Model the fold of this input.
Amino acid sequence: MSTESFLGIHGTALALREQRLQLLSANIANADTPGFRAQDMDFAKALNAALAPAAGAGADPLDAAAQAARFDAPSSQPSLDGNTVDAERAKAAFAQASLEYRASLNFVESKVRTMLTAITGQ
Done:
């Protein structure tokens, strides 16, 4: 049994959630960088793209899906230096994405514990 068939979409979802957290953390880290453009990822679009049959050979489907689902994050007040990070919105998005990541991780951990119980018989 492959990990993909065992975890279903949850392994893919976990990897995409990690990539979204990296994007959001880059936004927070660059809140004071002149000209920095905040980005986010449409998770549902990325997941659908990652689960679709791969059209091109050789490309990592997760990276391709994450790139395709990226967009410029909205900013209510872009700064005069061109930075579009809204620090409070970025922190809130990161907090929500962290919770979603943890939920996916809990599900994967549960599946692994179930498999270990089945293997060890305990």
